[in-house]
Write a structure and sequence with these properties.
By secondary structure, the chain is α/β, with parallel strands linked by helices. It has 11 helices and 15 strands. The protein folds into 2 domains: about 60 residues, no CATH class; about 290 residues, Rossmann fold (3-Layer(aba) Sandwich). The termini are far apart.
Length: about 375
């Protein structure tokens, strides 16, 4: 009797060359489209970008875009962030060009597109420089600036002339946050009266549109540090609740946050974690601990977290940013001195609405005094005295 033998054919994976499209030159390098083989995904290329940069002898390769069956790779021959010479400029209402992306495009903080930002970084990493650039860009705009500075006021006091309010103690912060919530309630009533969902709706008369408010918070950890005294515990609780409330409601009613800190971790309490979820714009400079980087970027993109941990201290001002696109980029901010920011604050001090006006009745809570919201430009840094 014959026994039939079953032969098993082992399937062997064979590497296949990528199907490259035309290579097109760019200002900083080149871009090339790649057609995916069956079973491939964009993540297959994301994992080998460093190897591609090494093989192509370029500075870096990024996944620029993708669609079903195709990805586009962008190669840069040199690091565009090595020298950043862009001037800081207002780029429209609540928009400030503060730096350069690794794609060669300017980095714009746009509070209308991304209302709230979290900025973390160690000492000398570039946080203060970015704040200086933002103040230079916002100073000539028809907006109110409000500061929270728990370093005793040393960070924002030089710019107090352009600020409508500045709090330097935690008790002051709690009171100022309560007043900001009062402004939100007044603006909510205004929108309800005009049957609109936000202050930017076309049905809201221009004469009644409130002034936008940008809230700058420095060293947020100081707001959340818990103490043994019952009074201080109540202050921390009040600050955490009110700051979170502003983050949840502020966008529709023209109140925007930029929160900074050296140390931002879950150990500061659930209030910080809840606040982090509302701050969808992320800027992570060089940090001293991995937990802070995770708080800034870990819930967004693991690749961004790896890039942030690789930031060199030799390039201050460099950060990993995530904005309106939802994708991360390396960025370096323009160098702006404290003297330049102070000069801008003094030059445009007359544009700062008084706090009494902002906290008044609904009609007086931020009339624009016929300032043209569309036509204004900020000066180049060279025009400001140093």
């Amino acid at each position: 009797m014959m026994v039939k033998q079953r032969r098993t054919i082992r399937r062997v994976e064979v590497e296949r060359s990528p199907r490259l499209g035309l290579i097109r030159p760019t200002r900083l390098g080149f871009r090339v489209s790649v057609r995916l083989h069956d079973g491939q995904t964009p993540e297959d290329y994301t994992r080998v970008l460093d190897k591609l940069a090494h093989a192509w002898k370029v500075h870096a390769v990024r996944l620029a875009s993708w669609k079903p069956g195709k990805v586009v790779l962008l190669a840069t021959l040199v690091d565009p962030l090595e020298h950043v010479t862009l001037p800081v400029l207002s780029d429209g209402l609540l928009r400030v060009r503060v730096g350069l992306l690794d794609t060669g495009a300017p980095f714009v903080i746009d509070f209308r597109a991304v209302p709230h930002w979290l900025n973390v970084g160690a000492t000398q990493s570039g946080k203060s420089n970015l704040a200086n650039a933002l103040i230079v860009g916002l100073a000539p705009q028809p907006v109110a600036l409000v500061g929270f500075d728990l370093k005793g006021g040393v960070e924002f006091t030089p710019y107090e002339a352009r600020m409508s309010a500045l709090a330097t103690e935690r008790a002051e912060c709690a009171e100022l946050l309560a007043e900001l919530i009062g402004i939100i309630m007044a603006r909510m009533a205004l929108c309800r009266a005009h049957r609109v969902k936000n202050i930017w709706h076309s049905r809201l008369p221009e004469s009644e549109r409130p002034v936008p408010i940008v809230v700058l918070v420095d060293e947020v950890a100081e707001l959340f540090l818990m103490a043994d005294k019952k009074k201080e515990q109540e202050e921390v609780s009040a600050v955490a609740t009110r700051l979170l409330r502003i983050a949840q409601l502020g966008r529709a009613f023209g109140i925007y946050l930029k929160v900074c800190g050296q140390r931002v971790g879950s150990d500061l309490g659930p209030g910080v974690t809840a606040l982090r979820a509302q701050l969808t714009g992320r800027i992570c400079h060089m940090v001293n601990d991995e937990e802070t980087a995770k708080m800034a970027l870990g819930d967004m993109d693991p690749g961004a977290l790896v890039a942030a941990r690789q930031i060199s201290p030799a390039m201050p001002g460099t950060a990993v940013v995530i904005g309106s696109e939802g994708r991360w980029h390396r960025m370096r901010s323009v160098h702006v001195t404290e003297e330049q920011a102070e000069a801008a604050a003094a030059t445009y001090a007359h544009l700062a609405p008084s706090w009494a006006r902002l906290t008044g009745n609904v009609a007086a809570a931020g009339d624009l005094d016929e300032v043209d919201m569309e036509e204004f430009t900020a000066p180049d840094l060279e025009d400001l005295p140093v």
